[in-house]
User: Which sequence fits this backbone?
């Protein structure tokens, strides 16, 4: 499968614990995004990378959240001291940016990592 | 930032009938409008998109229209089939950050 892969697919944790999600984008894609989706809502933008540089973080991303893309390939999203309000599906997506810097369009999403905080 | 509103939130249609979902956006600079389909427990997948220099685009049974002046765009599905049952999301952007609507749950009744 050459699509976007995420793991773990499901994570149940107790409040206060730390969790980390991993995303492997499509190999030639230089942009990687993290979105959060709660039940009955559309995905909400959290942050994105172009290669290894994190270029924007949403105000939704509190100080407890940190994302990295160390070599411009896979990315990790860590949530520290989880709260019940963090329960959601965390979606990763990737896309290809053309030489002009403009997005070619389609975001390819992974299956998501579902977090449940008890 | 961009704000996208989508309606209806649920839509039930008889198999073979048409389904229409409408979205409005707030940022006049938005120039790319994709539609994603998400089946239960699956990833969102692009089904059709349109750019601001085009007013309408068709792909078999689905079509999207864009009215830049009114800042709204619509998805049309004709001859609906049971496999069209899913949640559909519209989105808008002028560069890298897609802003999504809240989604429309479409149910096709046999």
Assistant:
């Amino acid at each position: 499968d050459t699509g976007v892969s995420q793991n773990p697919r499901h994570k149940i944790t107790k409040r206060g614990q730390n969790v980390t999600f991993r995303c492997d984008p499509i190999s030639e894609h230089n942009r990687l995004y993290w979105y959060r989706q709660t039940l009955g809502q559309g995905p909400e933008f959290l942050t994105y990378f172009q290669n290894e540089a994190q270029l924007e973080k949403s105000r939704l991303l509190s100080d407890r959240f940190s994302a990295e893309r160390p070599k411009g390939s896979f990315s990790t999203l860590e949530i520290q001291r989880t709260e019940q309000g963090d329960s959601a599906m965390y979606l990763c997506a990737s896309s290809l940016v053309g030489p002009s810097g403009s997005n070619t369009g389609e975001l390819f999403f992974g299956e998501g990592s579902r977090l449940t905080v008890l | 930032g961009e704000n996208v509103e989508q309606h209806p939130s649920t839509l039930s249609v008889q198999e073979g009938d048409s389904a229409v979902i409408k979205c409005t956006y707030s940022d006049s600079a938005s120039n790319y409008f994709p539609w994603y389909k998400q089946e239960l427990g699956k990833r969102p997948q692009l089904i059709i998109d349109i750019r601001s220099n085009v007013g309408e685009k068709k792909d078999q049974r689905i079509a999207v229209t864009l009215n830049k002046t009114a800042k709204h765009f619509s998805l049309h599905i004709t001859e609906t089939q049971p496999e069209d049952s899913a949640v559909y999301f519209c989105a808008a952007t002028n560069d890298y950050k897609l802003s999504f609507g809240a989604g429309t749950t479409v149910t096709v009744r046999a």
Chain A touches chain B through 24 residues (CB under 8 Å). Chain A has a mean pLDDT of 91. Chain A has no helices and eleven strands.
